[in-house]
Write a structure and sequence with these properties.
321 residues; alpha/beta; eight-stranded mixed sheet; 8 strands; binds zinc ion
Length: 321
C-alpha cells in the first residue's frame, strides 16, 4: 500500500511515524517544502542538531531507520507550486491513499484537486488552535470535496497566512486571533486518530465509521474556530424525531459514499465550544450540488483533446459564417 502524504510538520510527522509502522504500508511519497527550524524542536521528533535541514529529508531518514524495507520518496516542494502539478498528479495516480497534514488552506485545496483527479481516497487531520481538540476528515473518490467541507464549516481560503505558519493545520487561520500553540500531547492524539482513519481506509475499523460518540448538538461555539463548530453542529443536527446519521457503510456503497466523514474530538472543556473534554462528534458532510469545485455548478474541465476539438469547431463555424 502506497501512501502519498503532504506535510511533515509536528502533526504530519506524528501521523507518518504511525502510518509507516504498519506492515501493509510498503511505499511513502512525501511532499514538504520547509526547513526544520529551532521553534519546531519542542514538539517534533527530531533533535536540535537537525535544525537547518529539510523536513522531508529528516522524515525520510526517520522512516528508513524504522522500516528499512519501505520505499520512501522525499520531495522538497510546495504542493501548490503550479510548475510541478504534473509531477504531483503522477504521484497521486500512483498512490493508494492520500494523507494531508498541510498547514494552510491553499495546500488542502491543492491536495484535494490532485486526489479527486486521480480518484483516490484521502484523509485530513487538523488540530484546533490551542490544542483544544481537532478534526479528522476522510474523503472518498467521487464524494464531497474539501470545498464542500470547508464551506460547510464556514472556512475561508487564505492564500497567504499572516505570521508564522502553525505546524499542523490552521482551521482558524483566517481569523485575526492570537494563536496559542497546541501541545505535542494534543497533536499526538489527533495524529493518532488521523493515522487510524488512514489505515482504516483499507480494512481496519475507522474511528470515523463506528457507533457512539456525542451528539453533535453538544458542539457550540463562538469566536474564531467556533464559527465552524457552530456551522457543523447546526447542519448536522438530526431532524426532530429523526435518527442520527447511520455509521458509514463500506467504501463505495450507496449514497453515503457521497459524504465526507468527519470526526471532531474535544481535548479540553472550553466554554461556548466544548462542553467536556474527550468527546467525539461525528459528522457526515454531504456533497453540495452548489459546490464550485465538485458540484453540478462546477465548470466542466476539458481535456486537451476536447479543447482542441472545441477550438476546431469554433474556427470551422467562423469560417462557414
Ligand atoms: Zn465539493
Amino acid at each position: 500500500m502506497h501512501v502519498f502524504q503532504v506535510g511533515a510538520g509536528s502533526g504530519g510527522m506524528a501521523v507518518l511515524d504511525l502510518v509507516a509502522r504498519d506492515p501493509r504500508i510498503t511505499r511513502v511519497t512525501l511532499v514538504e517544502p520547509d526547513v526544520y527550524a529551532a521553534h519546531n524542536v519542542y514538539r517534533h521528533l527530531f533533535p536540535p542538531s537537525a535544525v537547518g535541514r529539510m523536513k522531508a529529508e529528516l522524515a525520510a531518514e526517520w522512516v528508513r531507520a524504522i522500516r528499512p524495507d519501505l520505499a520512501f520518496d522525499a520531495v522538497v516542494a510546495d504542493i501548490t507550486d503550479p510548475a510541478r502539478q504534473a509531477e504531483f498528479a503522477r504521484m497521486a495516480a500512483e498512490c493508494d491513499v492520500g494523507v494531508c497534514a498541510a498547514d494552510n488552506e491553499a495546500a488542502k485545496f491543492a491536495f484535494d484537486a490532485l486526489m479527486r483527479a486521480a480518484g483516490k481516497p484521502w484523509t485530513l487531520g487538523e488540530v484546533l488552535s490551542g490544542g483544544i481538540g481537532g478534526w479528522v476528515h476522510r474523503f472518498s473518490p467521487g464524494g464531497a470535496c474539501y470545498g464542500c467541507v470547508a464551506s460547510h464549516l464556514q472556512r475561508e481560503v487564505k492564500e497567504a497566512p499572516s505570521g508564522p505558519p502553525p505546524d499542523y493545520s490552521a482551521p482558524a487561520a483566517a481569523q485575526p486571533e492570537a494563536r496559542i500553540p497546541a501541545s505535542k500531547a494534543s497533536i499526538a492524539v489527533i495524529a493518532g486518530l488521523h493515522a487510524c482513519a488512514t489505515l482504516g481506509e483499507q480494512s481496519l475499523p475507522s474511528p470515523l465509521a463506528g457507533e457512539g460518540g456525542e451528539s453533535s448538538s453538544r458542539v457550540r461555539g463562538n469566536g474564531a474556530s467556533a464559527n465552524e463548530l457552530r456551522g457543523a453542529a447546526s447542519r448536522s443536527t438530526p431532524p426532530p424525531g429523526g435518527e442520527a446519521p447511520p455509521p458509514s457503510p463500506a467504501r463505495g456503497e450507496g449514497k453515503d459514499s457521497q459524504a465526507a466523514e468527519s470526526l471532531l474530538f474535544s481535548l479540553q472543556a472550553v466554554p461556548g465550544v466544548f462542553d467536556a473534554p474527550f468527546r467525539a462528534h461525528r459528522f457526515r458532510i454531504p456533497r453540495s450540488p452548489a459546490c464550485l469545485t465538485c458540484g453540478a455548478a462546477a465548470a466542466p474541465t476539458l481535456s486537451g483533446e476536447q479543447l482542441d476539438g472545441a477550438v476546431a469547431d469554433a474556427l470551422a463555424r467562423l469560417g462557414a459564417g
